[in-house]
Amino acid sequence: MTTIALLPDPISPLSRETAGEAFAAILDGTAPDAEIAEFLTGLAIRGETSIEIAAAARALRDRMIAIEAPKGAIDVCGTGGDGHHTLNVSTAVSIVVAACGVPVAKHGNRAASSQAGAADTLEMLGLDLDRAERDAEGSLADIGIAFLFAASHHPAIKRLTPIRRAIGRRTIFNLMGPLASPARVTRQLIGIARPDYAATYAAALADLGTEAALVVAGEEALDELSCAGPSVVVALGIPNVADRIAPEDAGLPRHPLSAIRGGDAAHNAHALRALLDGERGPYRDAVLLNAAAALIVAGTADTLSEGAETAAAALDDGRPAALLDRWIAYR
After folding, report:
1. Residue 231 annotated as binding?
2. Phi (first) and psi of residue 205, to 5 degrees
3. Which residues hold Mg(2+) 2 (predicted)?
4. What are the Cα distances from residue 21, in Å, to 16, 26, 152?
5. Mind listing the pLDDT tens digit for each residue in 187-246?
6. 114 marked as part of a ligand binding site
């Protein structure tokens, strides 16, 4: 008896319709595990197209638990998996940018390939993740920040965990975090650990109806703007942005990535709190660079220099530290 495959052969690029049907079958569990593994591996080997990335994101968005967000809310999120094990830059940027008056719906998770993800570090700082999850809409509306724990908002992806672990390599689902914001934001600063894939990723964002975004990748395969040298940048809906950005474009010095290497959750939380309390150095400069880009995405800064100055002023007068304290106490 011949078995009819439920998923298409990924040897050639898929059409929008075929890709949509395939990812619906994967997320709904109607395709066998072995077939899912073969399909995802085939896509990864061939290289996913923007159409396929957008189709996977749509399927995930259709099945996520969404929240309401205020107009102008943004997300600052990376794909992760860059292997550099830096301090939590995007988490710090989210707090700083929110303190500058931009609502930030921070989408994140626990560590997968590093020692401390956004959730781990925020929890160590004193944020009750269960309460933050329950109160996400309220805190986003009232104080301008929320943490959206990916595992809570994307139940459809949970069943894929053992399949992805068995595959043992990156698949299209490693690209999904920034594309499936539960707050349905249309403005994003996205870090991707694959500089050669930034344009493809930006095309997927355009397909998904994103209003404004910067897709950034450090040339050393870092999933954020690098403090060590140039980064690849692809802008969507934002004019006059260079396709390469270096720290000096924001008036900041360069630092080796080793200067912002992170550790476990306690180590990273201590560093983040010290940053918010005014400590200067490489971590602050990395955060200022990425905060500047986020403020451009939000439309509140026109240049990197302006954005960095705005973020620095907030840090210097203690607004991000005060916001974190309000967030921890929020109920």
Report:
1. no
2. -60, -45
3. 223-224
4. 9, 9, 24
5. 999 999 999 999 999 999 999 999 999 999 999 999 999 999 999 999 999 999 999 999
6. yes
pLDDT tens, 50-65? 999 999 999 999 999 9
List the chain domain ranges.
75-151+167-329
Please say whether the dihedral angle defined by the alpha carbons of residues 124, 125, 128 and 129, taken in this order, is positive or negative.
negative
89: annotated binding-site residue?
Answer: yes
| Structure-token pair, residue 141 | 């509306």
Tell me the C-alpha distance between 160 and 60, whole Å: 12
Q: Is 154 annotated as a binding residue?
A: no
Residues of the chain above pLDDT 90, percent: 88
Residue type, 142: D
192: three-class secondary structure by DSSP: coil
54 annotated as belonging to a binding site for a ligand: no
Residue 158 is labelled as binding a ligand:
no
Q: Domain 75-151+167-329 is of which CATH architecture?
A: 3-Layer(aba) Sandwich (3.40)
Do the annotations mark residue 49 as ligand-binding?
no
Q: Is 221 annotated as a binding residue?
A: no
